[in-house]
Amino acid sequence: MTSVKTRMHLQSVQAFVCVCALAANSWGADYGKVTSSKVAEGVYLFTTSPYGDVGFGGNSVAIITDEGVVMFDTSGTPATGQTILSEVRKLTHKPVVYVINSHWHWDHWGGNQVFKEAFPNVQFMSHEKNRDLMMNVAVAWNAPGLEKDLPDYINQQKQQLVRAEAKHASQPELAKQRELLAADEDFLRQKRSVTYTFPDVTFSESAALYLGGREIRVLHAQAITPGDTYLYLPKEKILITGDILVSPVPFAVGGSYPQGWIETLQKLNEMEIETIIPGHGEAEHDKSYLTRNLTLFKRVLADVKAAKGNGLSLDQTKEQLMNKAADYAAEFGLSEKDLPDFKNFFLLVFVNRAYHELEKPLGDSPLALDIDYFERIFDSLEPQFLRLLCLLTLKATYPNNVQLLR
Predict the structure, then answer these.
(1) What are the pLDDT digits (tens) for 162-191?
(2) Is 156 a domain residue?
(3) What are phi and psi of 81, to 5 degrees?
(4) Which of 103, 163, 228, 280 could lock 221 by a disulfide, CB 3.0 to 4.6 Å apart?
(5) Is 246 contained in some domain?
(6) CA-CA distance, 317 to 297, in Å (whole number)?
(7) What are phi and psi of 177, to 5 degrees?
């Protein structure tokens, strides 16, 4: 195991870690495949399958109006953005006039440049805090991983393939390894080809677009990030949440704010909604998944409050609530195979943030996890690349103060 020679709290973490952790459990032949589905008249959802075992793509949504198209997020890479744009062009000849970015995590705006190149007058819109995080946090954090850690991981894959070939592994196994390696190499090429394209229109609390007979409300929450931007179409009763909701396993890595998150879910639950499009996963046509999230979050926060009120320390509170993880997950409706992700990338983070938030308000820094979080989950991270990402997070945050020993 890697030991971390510091007790200081992390001020930040890459969303890269959490999305790759989920992607690692989703191997398949169709890496980076975009799937289009019609959610409502003139509203289309584009989902993206994992990029090998090193990347995940957030949902993208096209809202077609008589005056142009509004895009909500552009997924993880320029190639994916180009595929989505090609699909949009099959649906309409109208130009894309707005691209709205939900939050700063890399897997939701990697295709921005494609829309800028195709439509020079397009406006990129998001919350003012989101723009700041995209410009001043996300780019710097991704850079070391693309320069060294991901290439190192790919080289390890190449070496493993050579050893497998020397041992005369089965042809199906070799084909699987070669396909995975090619997908990971392509992902690295794509991420290195990104021209970072930031919002040029911001808002503070809310905004409204009136295009071609549609009303699109652009709203702000502080839930998983300080600048969460989400959409509501009142006439169609469609809610587009970004990562405020993620299906099928909720996660909190990336700067979560438990109290604000619960307030946001309560507010959403009071709205007239017929369709919900989450940041990851398929569209929902009722509020059941939203209410399950709300119930879970409220229960965990209440348990954190009770533990702290009884004088338990943060570590004692984590231990007590982690022992209840299986019960939380079962009540939420998750299977046993989802329990590790639920514990490591939702429950442990949420408890930590909730406990600190009871002591004082959380700032805009993306994450305030302590080193114990990484030490606790380190041995459970597979494949090896996820461990490299944990190391990358620390090195990027404290390049001069953190020593990492193999």
Answers:
(1) 999 999 999 999 999 999 999 999 999 999
(2) no
(3) -60, -40
(4) 228
(5) yes
(6) 16
(7) -65, -40
